[in-house]
Every structure is written in C-alpha cells, then in structure tokens.
Amino acid sequence: MNPGLAFDAVTCLRGGRILFEGLSFALAPGDAGLVLGPNGVGKSSLVRIAAGLLAPLGGRVTGEGTRALLSETAALDAERTLAGALGFWAGLDGRGEAVGDALEAVGLADLADVPVRLLSTGQRRRAGFARVLASGAPIWLLDEPGNGLDTVSLAMLEARIAAHRAGGGIVLVATHQPIALPDAQEIAL
Ligand SMILES: Nc1ncnc2c1ncn2[C@@H]1O[C@H](COP(=O)(O)OP(=O)(O)OP(=O)(O)O)[C@@H](O)[C@H]1O
C-alpha cells in the first residue's frame, strides 16, 4: 500500500459561509503540505476535512493510509497519567509498546506518571505529538503543531517531521508560526 492524500475540488462550508472552494492538491510519500492563511480563513477546517471529521460540501478526499491528527485539543484523558492516556490510544492500534519511545522522542519520559491535567501548555502539545508518533500512521495531520513550544521542542518537532518524510511518510501542517518544512507544497487559503 502506497500512502497518499489528495483533495480534489474540495469546497468547505462552515457556519453558513463558504471558506474555500474547489481546492485541489496531492501529497505523495515523502511530501509535506503547508496550509497558510489568516485567522479564521479555514486552516483548521481543512485539516478536519483531511482527517475525515468534517464532510466537504463538494469534491472529495482520497488516499490510502491511516491518518493521525494533532489538533488544538490533545485528545488525552486529563485524569490519566501521561503514559496511561497515550497507552489508551496506542493500545487501540495494537501499538502499546510504542509509547515509551514516543515519550522519549518528545522529551517527556520523566513525566510518564504525571496526570495529563498537570502538564503545561507546551508539554501538552508535545504529549499530543507523542500520540501521533506512537500511532505509526503514515499520514500526519498537524494543526498548529508548534503552538506553545519552546525553541528546543520546535527543533525536535521539525526533526521528527523530516525523519517521517524521509521514511516515506506524509505530513500536512497548518500553522501561523514559521516551521522548517523543506520543499513543502504551500496551500494558501
Ligand atoms: N463548529 C463550527 N461551527 C460553525 N462555524 C465554525 C465552527 N468551527 C469554526 N467555524 C468557523 O469557520 C471559520 C474557519 O475556522 P477555522 O478554525 O477553520 O479557521 P483557521 O484558519 O484555522 O483559524 P485560526 O488561524 O484562527 O486558527 C471561522 O469563521 C469559524 O468561526
């Protein structure tokens, strides 16, 4: 199976307004898409459509391969320990053993036993990214992945994305912040 992600003439309606219309792009293994545009233009909506959480008004999304989403909400149970919350999701994919390495990768191994609700903003963001890493999904959908990250963590994120692409993974990033994403396809809304 060759992963891929393509938008074919996708139109997005939200809150009674057309946010974008007839949007097409295609990402192949190793590719990155960078979604850019001002506040409220529809970047998060585009990522949600790519994740299958929001239906487009028109057009279609195609592509093979599982998709992992990092969005504003980390989607981790606040009352569980960090390792427990990540283990819940990874376990659903039969990848419970991947949690330890993911926590190491994002520099949170020391906080594995801390409840998610006690994490700082940046730590929570990194925890959300650890969930993506642990998923093993070939397609990463990252909505503002750099939010709240310090310089070291941003460099970690960029390095992990580069390694993912080098291994044939695909990434779609929506962001305001500058992020190193060499040769990314710009998707300007
Ligand atoms: N659940 C919803 N119901 C109705 N309208 C919504 C909903 N979520 C978002 N919108 C509207 O859709 C528009 C686009 O929102 P979206 O979050 O996709 O933009 P964005 O480009 O990601 O913004 P930002 O840069 O501020 O994160 C906004 O006008 C917003 O109010």
From TrEMBL:
<dbReference type="InterPro" id="IPR005895">
    <property type="entry name" value="ABC_transptr_haem_export_CcmA"/>
</dbReference>
<keyword id="KW-0813">Transport</keyword>
<keyword id="KW-0067">ATP-binding</keyword>
<dbReference type="GO" id="GO:0022857">
    <property type="term" value="F:transmembrane transporter activity"/>
</dbReference>
<dbReference type="Pfam" id="PF00005">
    <property type="entry name" value="ABC_tran"/>
</dbReference>
<keyword id="KW-0472">Membrane</keyword>
<feature type="domain" description="ABC transporter">
    <location>
        <begin position="5"/>
        <end position="187"/>
    </location>
</feature>
<dbReference type="InterPro" id="IPR003439">
    <property type="entry name" value="ABC_transporter-like_ATP-bd"/>
</dbReference>
<dbReference type="GO" id="GO:0005524">
    <property type="term" value="F:ATP binding"/>
</dbReference>
<protein>
    <submittedName>
        <fullName>Heme exporter protein A</fullName>
    </submittedName>
</protein>
<dbReference type="GO" id="GO:0017004">
    <property type="term" value="P:cytochrome complex assembly"/>
</dbReference>
<dbReference type="InterPro" id="IPR027417">
    <property type="entry name" value="P-loop_NTPase"/>
</dbReference>
<dbReference type="GO" id="GO:0016887">
    <property type="term" value="F:ATP hydrolysis activity"/>
</dbReference>
<keyword id="KW-1278">Translocase</keyword>
<keyword id="KW-0547">Nucleotide-binding</keyword>
<keyword id="KW-0201">Cytochrome c-type biogenesis</keyword>
<dbReference type="InterPro" id="IPR003593">
    <property type="entry name" value="AAA+_ATPase"/>
</dbReference>
